[in-house]
């Protein structure tokens, strides 16, 4: 991406860059907001109906299951946790599979159109899940299909927004900027929990429909206002300036024709000089067109494989909390669905602080891998509900750093020799590999939880340790750089 020309108003550029940061923050907040309702609604789909006040006008044959929503209660009373795990994985497996292809599409399609389409379709499928309540649909196949389609549509978001932010911001304070910006993940989870919780006890269908309408609305906003790179911004701004300048020149030349021959010669000289300057400036903005990087080419970038595998296990932990924490709190602490959802937001509040701190520390030290490794090691003994704030910060800090600053660093790695079209593909590979872990975590939780919730936490601790092991080579190289034994590297 070309640098901003001197003639362009610096304040205008800075304001619009801030506006782009806000827009992309809003977009991915909506993405995560629309993913959260399923975790809140689970405790409403399968309830202990013996403790629920029975309506007098309802003929009840089974006091234990009358308030459940089939097929998650009445016919499948003993394995409802497995069914919830299947429902989660319909979304997460589709998301992981689609993510590897999403980056390839993102490199080749206009990001504005790609994001707008993805948000509109995500809104549609989120609403269709909620409409199952009003249409009285009790088919596992229906809800599973909706989850698969929604998972595929949600893959449009992450590679596109990271590529967009990477196009607008340099490497200087990338960790801090993206650490603040990446709080959209936790903000979206918090808002999704609160919105879903407001409707879950009365009409759980609205817990999906309202978030669906919100993400569809942001898709329309994206279509009209997103400028995906500095180059497009400067080109559009300069085009408007050139139109006004050329009009002024034509008026000036027309008036000069009525004056003396000497004046006409001077005006012609001025005209050539101005147009020469315009041509020179616009030439500087010509973007070098290079081919998008291949999948194998992106994998060969140093650090991509290690960070991808680390993210697999880090995301396994994060998404297990995302999808199962409210149900765990409801079952173990005996909270109502709304209260359990509200309490689960503490994990995401910690995630906001953790993401910012991880970005700050990695910017200061230049050690992306070391920052992630230390936080993951510290998180292992903290994996418990009694320490939700601290656990959320230590788990989501590395997750946020890898999916934002690390992805942007690797997508603009020096080995690419200036090829700026690798960012979306690299981001998709890293997040796609992480999404495999996101699919495995809730699935394993559904299988292990009947044997006891303690076993689920042992599984999460093991995943944290494995995430650290995959970063050992990169951490060793960073420590060598700090000790003067080698070049100081970032990530």
UniProtKB/TrEMBL annotation:
One Gene Ontology CC term in the entry: endoplasmic reticulum membrane
Molecular function terms from GO: glucose 6-phosphate:phosphate antiporter activity
Principal localisation: endoplasmic reticulum
Bilayer-spanning residue ranges: 12-31, 80-101, 113-135, 141-169, 181-200, 206-227, 304-325, 345-362, 374-395, 456-476
Subcellular location per the Swiss-Prot or TrEMBL entry: Endoplasmic reticulum membrane
Keywords on record: Antiport, Endoplasmic reticulum, Glycoprotein, Membrane, Sugar transport, Transmembrane, Transmembrane helix, Transport
A Gene Ontology biological process term: phosphate ion transmembrane transport
Record domain Major facilitator superfamily (MFS) profile: where: 23-479
Family in the record: Belongs to the major facilitator superfamily. Organophosphate:Pi antiporter (OPA) (TC 2.A.1.4) family.
Name by which UniProt lists this protein: Glucose-6-phosphate exchanger SLC37A2
Organism from which the protein derives: Dicentrarchus labrax
Gene name of the record: slc37a2
